Amino acid sequence: MQNTPTIPVSPNTTNVANFVTILAFSDLHLNHKAAENIIHQAQSADIVIGAGDFAQKGDDLAGFMPLFNDIPCPIIIVAGNHDDIGELRHHCANQPHIYVLHGTGMRLLGLEFFGLGYECPISNNESWNRALDEDEADILLSACPERAVLVTHAPPHGIADQQKNGFHAGSHAIYAAIMQKQPLLHVCGHIHAAWGQSGTIGQTPIHNLGPAGKMFKLPVPSR
What we know:
The chain is an alpha/beta fold and 223 residues long. Helix 4 (134-141) runs parallel beside helix 5 (172-181). The chain has helices at 32-42, 61-64, 85-92, 134-141, 172-181; strands at residues 6-7, 19-25, 47-50, 75-77, 98-100, 104-108, 111-116, 149-152, 185-188, 198-201, 204-208, 214-219. It is globular, with a radius of gyration of 16 Å. Mean pLDDT is 92; it is low at 1-16. The chain is built from 5 helices and 12 strands. Helices cover 18% and strands 24% of the residues.
């Protein structure tokens, strides 16, 4: 697995009895009020996860990402289809507590994390849209370790991916990776109509997050 730093315990940590509290969200799309709500909730978290789409059609990451300086704990993020990953990394470069994952993983507070950004499968050809086809996603997801916390922008096909018309818009590659690797938790976003939807694949809980944020309390695996 590429880029696997071990990060010291955050001074904000509340992981009593080997539990880690995670706040996860997606699809802020430059919504400052929603970002302020996430920042408020993050004061009670050990780790924050952002599952993509900070920008809106690629616009104003420079003005939006500095808001996350006010979060006191480590933040793991992936790029959404509205976010160019190079620009996202550039605008987070001065925030050493933010880690941008894309086909890469890391270890944090005793848990393994793996991230994959962008839309999958490809749904439109707009110049701002950032996407992977299923084969590209499958290759990148092959590096995901078993029983990690998996963060993707797109949901898996058939779970937490349903559009208003009933169409399942998720990724077969993500579904297959979850079946094979059985992550401890999988969080995603992207399909706005599916915000709040959840399900399971094997033993893995799946959650489509949305901008309101959701708290999770995960046990640290014993060694």
